[in-house]
Design a protein that fits this description.
This protein has 363 residues and is mostly helical. The chain contains 15 helices and no strands. Helix 4 packs antiparallel against helix 5 and helix 5 packs antiparallel against helix 13. It is globular, with a radius of gyration of 20 Å. The mean pLDDT is 86.
Length: 363
């Protein structure tokens, strides 16, 4: 359906931006509400779930090479149930793209472009992503390779705050035990589960032997970046982190050095736009591929713009207000992602392994 070819390194860069794009804004505040001053540990604890998702995706791909998640779902659980599952995944990714689009627009209109209609921001971003999706997987990953350095660069400006760090904010360490920290690790666990999207990219990878290496490096880079952001927010904001809507934005506003490095929150806006473009385009592409794979359609391009309309509809229909969006992210969204990106693929892998063993016994 898409004959483009990519490398494992390109895929890892794409996934780095996909996971971190919204995670660095939302995870600090959500995790801090559970784990207090220990929320910086949560991205590290969640590494196990990310590694599990990568292992599941790669194992399923090796059992059914040249097939994506929807295609080998039909081979594992049967044609009709597999198509139903494929449609469910299509709906899931369309909704997820709508969710990310709404997050993007809420942040921009709530902090920067106050008088700009949200509908205009969503339409312009989805339209831009639609052109990237029509260009195929190669255009998608090349955009990620080009834009990822621009996406990462603003984070280094947070180091200008080192003289203002209150290292003592990290204490007392684990004062309430492990349970609050485990609860706080649920958001990064659900975000890391998005690594399952590599199940749709792996058929296009030309150096399969390096997939494990670069996927794990991408996961470690995401965890390190989130830990870095969480620690800086903790050192600057302390216990007040959980009370901020966007702790990272508040932290950027603290930067003031030599009457020159000031008002650097504009860099955060640039980072937010670039990262969300990559993420929306990637989820959009997976949604289109899920639909065309489900119905064995060879050319996916005619369906790109109609599915984009569905994404915009979901953006405003599912999340009509910021409070509905925040409530979903803090509660149902965690289990929503974990169910479809971790639990269901794990069940598929178990069924696939059982079928393989049964076929060996029968033969």
């Amino acid at each position: 359906m898409d004959n483009g070819k990519i490398t494992s390194f390109q895929m890892s860069l794409l996934m780095y931006s996909v996971i971190l794009a919204t995670g660095f804004i939302t995870i600090p505040v959500i995790s801090a509400q559970y784990a207090d001053n220990d929320f910086w540990i949560t991205p590290i604890i969640a590494l196990l779930s990310g590694g599990s998702v990568i292992a599941i995706a790669i194992k399923l791909h090796r059992l059914y090479p040249n097939n994506n998640l929807v295609q080998y779902g039909e081979r594992i659980i049967g044609k009709v149930p597999g198509k139903v599952l494929g449609l469910i995944y299509f709906q899931f990714f369309v909704m997820t793209a709508g969710l990310v689009s709404r997050e993007y627009a809420e942040f921009v209109t709530g902090n920067y472009l106050f008088k700009t209609p949200m509908f205009f921001l969503v339409i312009s971003m989805v339209l831009l992503a639609a052109f990237a999706v029509r260009g195929g997987i190669e255009l998608l990953v090349r955009s990620a390779v080009l834009l990822t350095p621009l996406f990462i660069l603003p984070l280094f400006f947070l180091l200008l705050l080192i003289p203002d760090f209150e290292i003592s904010n990290i204490l007392p360490f684990m004062s309430r035990g492990l349970t609050p920290v485990m609860k706080g690790s649920l958001p990064p666990i659900s975000w890391y589960a998005e690594f399952l999207m590599i199940a749709f990219f792996l058929p296009s990878v030309i150096d399969q032997e390096k997939t494990v290496k670069y996927s794990l490096l991408s996961l470690i880079a995401v965890a390190a970046s989130l830990t870095y952001v969480c620690l800086i927010a903790l050192f600057i904001l302390g216990p007040d982190t959980a009370n901020k809507v966007y702790p990272v934005l508040t932290t950027f506003r603290y930067i003031s050095r030599a009457d020159f490095f000031e008002n650097l929150e504009a860099l955060l806006l640039a980072m937010w736009v670039v990262g969300n473009f990559i993420k929306i385009a990637a989820v959009y592409y997976v949604a289109v591929l899920s639909f065309t794979s489900c119905f064995n359609i060879k050319d996916y391009k005619p369906f790109v713009f109609p599915i984009g309309i569905l994404i915009v509809i979901h953006c405003f229909w599912d999340f009509p207000s910021y409070f509905r969006l925040a409530g979903f992210l803090h509660n149902a969204g965690i289990f929503h992602l974990a169910t479809f990106l971790l639990a269901v693929p794990f069940l598929l892998l178990i069924i696939a392994l059982c079928r393989k063993q049964w076929s060996k016994l029968v033969s």
